[in-house]
Write a structure and sequence with these properties.
The complex is a heterodimer. By secondary structure, chain A is an alpha+beta fold. Chain A has 19 helices and 23 strands. Among the domains of chain A are: 336-437, PAS domain (Beta-Lactamase, 2-Layer Sandwich); 461-531, Helix Hairpins; 540-714, 2-Layer Sandwich (Heat Shock Protein 90), CATH 3.30.565.10. Classes of the chains: A alpha+beta, B alpha/beta.
């Protein structure tokens, strides 16, 4: 419950008795006003009653005076006075007639000539009363014959000159009285009525009711009036409350009523009530409004004060709480929060996560003189000390990634986000940082890098293989086209010259020889290309068997190419066995010997030497076969290019020595397939060259095993 | 007499071209490599050959290198490329040369040469 509402309730409680009291006063005033109004109406009723009384009194007084005046006549001869009576009635407009009756009720004389003859009034109550009492009497009202208006008869006793009693009667119309009463009060909206002792209405604003002499004797106000118990009342008539005041008309049994709608009559009183209530309500509203406003202000200031007090309490709580929360936050981080002094980089704070990441207990970093740099990976120390630390000292926040060594000796990759903290003068006093273990990320990166490198290498190898194959095919195609063009063209030339009669016998045989030579070159080229293709495609198997290498060398020197050459052999006299494919080794030896013959002058010797050797690189005993010529030699730097497909020495080409550059390539491949080597050396151009084939000597078991398991080898004549 | 320089590493083709073109009435000089070809051009001075027949793929110095090293004036000499590969077409186009792919018909070679040196009719037979 708000403070404002509380205040309002207090105000309401305080005001309640006052309100009740005030309402009581208002009520009392209103009641007093109603009483005053009722008294006012009663006064009106009394005034009306007095007026009526005066009206009757006056007429009776006049009639009495007339009775005295008429006392000089003889009732026995009263008829003689009729004219006199008529004259009196004419002079008094209220009087309808005038008559004199004897004590038995018989009319003696009357002013009204139309009155029926022989009227006897002895049975009338008023006549009997006037005879009995000898005092003036007023009759009940009747509707006047001829006038149609309520009429009463005034009767006074009289005595004629002879002392004979009689009664003087004068019927008077109540019209005048009615006019008087109604005119007086009608303008105030108040209804006036006069009821006679018989309960008949003799004066009323509604002429019809008067004309019928409506009986109202059973109405409560009439009953009350006749009982004389009260003088005002409120009665309901036709569903409307009416305020009715009544007063008895003096010297008669008549009662005068004034009545009007209670709502209108009491309006001033009720208005007073409403005004009082309204005034009271206004006052209450005003007080409550002020209370509301004050309550609001009070409430605000109260709430502010309370909030301030609660803030103060909360602040004292939250300082502890936030410290606890920070501690929880830092402890729960998946990284190490640290703080170190700027001067010696000694830790002033390290969060407990360090134990999980680096293994050492927390105290290791805080109490022992442990230097952070001592725990770095040796390979990263230089980077951290020469790159990261200077950056830190420059005041730049930065992130440094390096490895640290765990307690168990494992390397851990850390990302260290370091931020310098400066004092007011801008000097760095502290460093703060967050170290996160990024070992997994680093390992993933390294793994990815390794896979990427592998993939790149594999792709490069494939691309190189494709490029090499394309190049080989391109060169092979070119090399094949040359001899074909030569053969085809030379044949055409023979035809052409013969057709023109210009083909000499000498030139013809020259051309034919060219064709034969070129065909031979073509077939060897095809052969070599097939070898190369097999070697490159890996569809190449050595058929190893024990071979006497000395015998092979001797056999190789016996060929057409060396027919007229001097070949000096050395070390071929004793058998030298090794496990090898005899055909392939023979192919290599022939190639080397033919090259030697081809690239050296015919009159120079070719030297072939076979020697046992021991080559640690080859892992055991070897045999070394060298072929030396005294020919064109090799230009510097060509010793390796010779062994590439189609590779030829420049001086060999410019010396117009035919060749395709495949022989040495094939030979080296075959040597290497045997686990051996083939190399070239030369002191220089025109100084000869030496080609050396080295083959490993395997033990006999291996040789035998090789012979037993040798695969199928491609065709080679 | 129109003079033609044949630069070709294959001896059979070199011999063939020489004999054929001589028979057609041209003066022919030969070179087995690009380097030799450059020497021959210098030897022929003060005149230049009317046509160079050039093999593109040669050891030591290939056809394009040879062409690039020609003296300024010799580079305007018409060029007929002999090649073992259709891929050489691009190279020939770049050099502004006509091209004949090996193996070729002798009539083709004669016709190309005649066109290159500007002969409207075949030279008078010897």
């Amino acid at each position: 419950m708000s403070q404002r509402v509380r205040l309002m309730l207090i105000l309401a409680a305080a005001m309640l008795p006052l309100i009740v009291l005030a309402l009581g006063f208002v009520w009392r005033d209103s009641q007093a006003a109603e009483d005053r109004i009722a008294e006012d109406r009663l006064a009106l009723a009394r005034a009306g009653a007095l007026t009526t009384g005066a009206f009757l009194e006056g007429n009776l007084a006049t009639l009495r005076a007339l009775a005295v005046e008429l006392g000089d006549i003889n009732l026995a001869t009263a008829e003689q006075h009729q004219a006199r009576l008529v004259a009196i009635v004419e002079a008094s407009p209220l009087w309808i007639g005038l008559g004199i009756h004897d004590m038995e009720g018989n009319r003696i004389v009357g002013a009204n000539p139309d009155a029926p003859q022989g009227v006897n009034l002895a049975d009338r109550a008023y006549f009997q009363e006037v005879v009995r009492t000898g005092r003036p009497t007023v009759s009940s009202a009747v509707i006047g014959r001829g006038t149609g208006l309520p009429t009463v008869v005034l009767a006074v006793p009289m005595t004629d000159a002879d002392g004979v009693p009689g009664v003087l009667l004068a019927p008077i119309s109540l019209d005048g009285l009615s006019n008087l009463l109604l005119a007086t009060l009608a303008e105030r909206g108040i209804s006036v009525s006069l009821v006679d002792s018989g309960g008949q209405t003799i004066v009323h604003p509604d002429p019809l009711r008067v004309a019928e002499l409506s009986y109202v004797g059973d109405r409560p106000e009439v009953v009350a009036a006749q009982a004389g118990e009260m003088d005002t009342m409120v009665a309901t008539r036709s569903g409307t409350e009416r305020l009715i005041a009544f007063a008895p008309v003096p010297d008669s049994d008549w009662t005068l009523f004034v009545s009007e709608p209670a709502a209108r009559a009491l309006a001033p009183a009720r208005e007073l009530l409403w005004q009082g209530a309204a005034l009271l309500a206004g006052a209450v509203a005003l007080v409550m409004g002020i209370g509301w406003f004050l309550g609001g202000a009070l409430s605000r200031s109260y709430l502010a004060a309370q909030a301030a007090r609660q803030d103060a309490i909360a602040a004292s709580h939250s300082a502890e709480e936030s410290q606890r929360e920070y501690a929880n936050l830092v402890d729960g981080l998946d990284g190490v929060v640290w703080e170190a002094q700027a001067d010696d980089l000694r830790f002033t704070f390290v969060s407990p996560a360090v134990e999980g990441i680096l293994g050492y207990p927390l105290d290791h970093w805080l109490t022992e003189p442990a230097r952070w740099s001592d725990h770095m990976h040796p390979e990263d120390q230089e980077f951290v000390l020469n790159r990261c630390v200077p950056e830190m000292r420059q005041g730049h926040g930065h992130t440094c990634e390096y490895r640290a060594i765990r307690e168990d000796g494992q390397a851990v990759w850390l990302a260290d986000m370091i931020r310098p903290v400066t004092d007011g003068q801008g000097h760095i006093t502290l460093f703060r940082g967050l170290m996160v273990d990024i070992t997994a990320r680093r390992q993933a990166e390294e793994e990815r890098g390794r896979l990427l490198a592998l993939e790149q290498q594999a792709r490069a190898e494939v691309e190189e293989a494709l490029r090499s194959r394309d190049e080989f095919l391109s060169i092979a195609s070119h090399e094949l086209r040359n001899p074909v063009a030569g053969i085809k063209g030379t044949a055409q030339l023979i035809q052409r010259l013969a057709a023109r009669g210009r083909l000499s016998t000498d030139s013809q045989s020259d051309y034919v020889e060219t064709i034969v030579r070129t065909s031979d070159r073509l077939s060897r080229l095809v052969e070599d290309l097939l070898d190369v293709s097999r070697l490159r495609g890996g569809q190449f198997t050595l058929r190893r068997a024990p071979v006497d290498i000395a015998a092979l060398v001797r056999a190789a020197t016996v060929s057409d190419a060396l027919e007229e050459r001097e070949v000096l052999l050395e070390g071929v006299d004793e058998p030298l066995l090794l496990g090898a494919d005899a055909d392939r080794v023979q192919q290599v030896l022939q190639n080397l010997l033919e090259n030697a013959a081809k690239y050296s002058p015919p009159d120079t010797p070719i030297e072939v030497a076979v020697r046992r050797d021991h080559d640690p690189a080859a892992g055991g005993p070897t045999v070394k076969i060298s072929v030396t010529d005294h020919g064109i030699g090799l230009p510097e730097g060509f010793a390796t290019d010779l062994f590439t497909p189609f590779g030829r020495a420049t001086n060999a080409v410019s010396a117009n020595i035919p060749g395709m550059g495949l022989g040495l390539y094939i030979s080296r491949q075959l040597a290497e397939a045997h686990g051996g080597t083939l190399t070239a050396s030369s002191p220089g151009e025109s100084q000869g060259s030496t080609f050396t084939l080295v083959l490993p000597i395997t033990d006999q078991e291996t040789v035998a095993a090789g012979a037993a398991t040798g695969g199928v080898e491609g065709s080679r004549a | 007499m129109k003079r033609i320089l044949v630069v070709e590493d294959d001896p059979a083709i070199r011999r063939l071209a020489t004999d054929l073109l001589k028979d057609e009435g041209y003066e022919v000089c030969t070179a087995a490599t690009g380097a030799e070809g450059l020497d021959v051009i210098e030897d022929l001075r003060p005149t230049l050959p009317d046509l160079i027949v050039l093999d593109l793929m040669m050891p030591v110095m290939d056809g394009p290198t040879f062409h690039a090293r020609l003296p300024e004036d010799a580079r305007r000499v018409p060029l007929l490329v002999l090649s073992g590969s259709r891929a050489a077409l691009d190279t020939a186009t770049r050099l502004g040369a006509d091209i004949l792919v090996k193996p070729f018909d002798l009539d083709d070679l004669v016709a190309r040469v005649a066109r290159a040196v500007g002969d409207r009719v075949a030279p008078v037979e010897r």
